[in-house]
Structures
1.
Amino acid sequence: MDFKDTHQSFYRYDLFLENEKQNPNLLSENKLLQKVAEEVAKGDELNVQDAVAAALEIAEPQTVINQGLILGMDEVSRLWNEGTYFLPQVILSSDAMMTGIALCEEKMGKASDRKGIIVSHVAEGDIHDIGQMIVNALLRAAGFEVINLGVDVPVDQVVQACLEYRPVILTGSALMTTTMSAFPRIAAKLTGLNRNIPFVCGGGAVNEEFVNSFDLGIWSRDPTWTVGIANEVLQGYSWQQLRTKWNA
């Protein structure tokens, strides 16, 4: 069965037929790596396996990841920013990328290089994870390892995960005003333990004024903001500097 036939609920809403009439963006001068990037951008989890296998015949696994799989997700990020792609396409592309990474890691015999660890969760009492799924997909595409604690995560479990994994940033999502009160409680416990981890918060219920009312908090208006914030932590930015830059 054709890939698209098995995913009609996704493809009938996007602009794939329009995109296929155009020449794809040139993401790599190497035809095989270009093919990997294209299949990731299409969200074609089946074809990406063949594309990665072919690329691994001529390139090192980490090269296939950096110059094929991640470039494909960079294109997805661009299309997301332009409003061309939405949740279904982002998730399909993220799954395709992770399938390709697994093949590369199998060839290497070890996990691929990651920029750093990020702990992600949906606030205690909240089960709405669509926003979190998008953020996690883009963070993984940017080269981070995401520890997803899931939905309705107790405050103490979030704090314990931060102590265990020592993440670059902590992310939290809340759709309901009744659940976002968990965020300042998490931040207070982390500061009490002298763990000044930038805490990036977002979601339908969350606004800049609320997040800026407690230490460590940085409001993220858009999933791509979270990626930008995480990258700047690696450059040495403190949570105070990040708040000033992103929430000024």
2.
Amino acid sequence: MSTSRRAAPLPPEVRRARIIAAALPLLRMHGTAVTTAQIAMAAGIAEGTLFRVFPDKDSLVHAAIATAFETGPTEAEIAAIDRELPLRDKLIAAVEVLQRRVEGVWQLMSMLGMAAPPGVNPLTPRPAPTMETLQHKVVALFEPHRDELRCEPAQAARVLRMMTFAGTHPRIADGVPLTAAEVVAVVLDGIRMRADLDPDSSDPDAEALPC
């Protein structure tokens, strides 16, 4: 007599998350041309099982888009950065995390023909409320180094995020994105060669990027 047992079915939320995780790379590659059969295969399930979780392809695509724009995973990665690292190293690690988000979101929007994130009017864009928490995580990286900055940590974090977006977005960076180290170098040091890096210098031209 066989004692083998069938594996217990996955909880609905776990199955849903797995399907979305399988769908996102395919949506970035194929856009809406991706089929539910391809997604089911990538998720390791039968296509009929997929339709027990999502009533149709459109509902799956909408759920995947919403997941792609969630900031929770990005916030967790930034929060996990070693706070004992020097400021430059912490910021490079943070920019690498932010760049992965920008690249993934842009690729998805491009393949799906999206002009703006969900719920944002492209004619009058406003920062999504969920971005505020992500901003706080970046600010926290600057806070212990307040005495090293020419501006408040919140403004420094804003400049870093703006530079990361501009330096990573393919259409803004002319297809040649800045590396994380380059983004941080511009934010912390500027791009002009100068002998005097002393923030207390009386030379008005010795300042770095305005914050």
3.
Amino acid sequence: MRGRRYFLQRAAQAGLGLAAAPFVRSAAARQVATLPSPDRADFWDLVRDLYPMTRERAYLNTGGLGPAPYPVLDAAERARTEQQTIVEHGHEQLEEIRGPVAAFFGAKAEEIAFTRNATEGNSTIACGLDFRPGDEVIFESHAHPGGAFAWMSRQKHDGIRVKIFEPDPTSAAGNLERIAALITPRTRVIQVSHLTAPTGILMPVDEIAKLARERDLWFHIDGAQSAGQVPFDLHAIGCDSYATSGHKWLCGPHGTGLLYVREDRLDAVWPTEVGAYCESEARLPDLFEYAPTARRYEAGTRDTASLLGLAEAVAFLDEIGIDRVAARAHELGQYLQRGLRAIPGVTVLTPSDPTLSAGMTTLKTDRVPYDRLNQHYDEAHMRCRIVTERGLDAVRISTHIFNNEAECDRVIAVTRDALDNA
């Protein structure tokens, strides 16, 4: 962490920025240079002032799309204006941010490729590994389409076999056992969502990585819901690859993400898109060598301005402190879950064990259909998300650093009213 002074400087630049920065609209945002110590009671209120979201509704869907704060919007807009002014793509700037972004995830610059989203990173792994017909891949039944469909495509076209397990919401050991029970001599890959999207189950990725190493299996993590929500170190986990989006809990610009491939495993994953910037050396018609780093997965011109915004989003969270960010999201999630579990007739599908969850809460009730319950939230000016995957028919509520206890109380009150009037 580079220190609170840097955070204040960045925040001040967003709020007191040049007239060319069109995103600064609120008086509160223009005064963020006075952001207090995190120990002050109003710290999170002032963090909320850094986001341009409307105050007319409570935004509770970071699991789907996270809002970007002023410093991120300002950094991306300034970069885009500068690039258009001089008509350059700014590719060299990617090398300037690659190291700091990689460090946030406990990785090396050489192991990080910038992508458009987690789906692209997941697909690069699924489509870039070498398989034979009958080879098997294991992942959980709650996998997002962005983590599952590339494997389904390979099953359809290449004859590999997909095997799924139902995630255990009560025990980390239970999930490990369910994975181990599916492993056969034909198994080649284990993939899990670090945090499952439908119900927010935190997977024991360290233990799964150890299991995969013992069986000489590739271990890939879909981190769309974990990056920016929970602290982790990719080298410490020991996975072979990891993909995430910048536009969820990292609160970066849309269309940004990253793919991590462990340095000693790069040659096992063929780039699925190849073009300029993928190569280290090329000469028509007989010479082509991939870049020796994860840059081999970045074909063609990138949206550098948005990726510079992603780097700013990482710096923003880093300055607050990812441990503090995670604690806040988890604290709000636990607060919300306690209130919902106290309502007769409500079932919270998110694990009751606080070590198995983070900032997402999924609930349902037999007394009010899930879509009608979500309509109640919408009419009360709260943006949540329905969960129809695997027939769960529930509603998911995400709590991040710009949310607060008052918004959780509103969810609880509307839920209670919906059941009382059912």
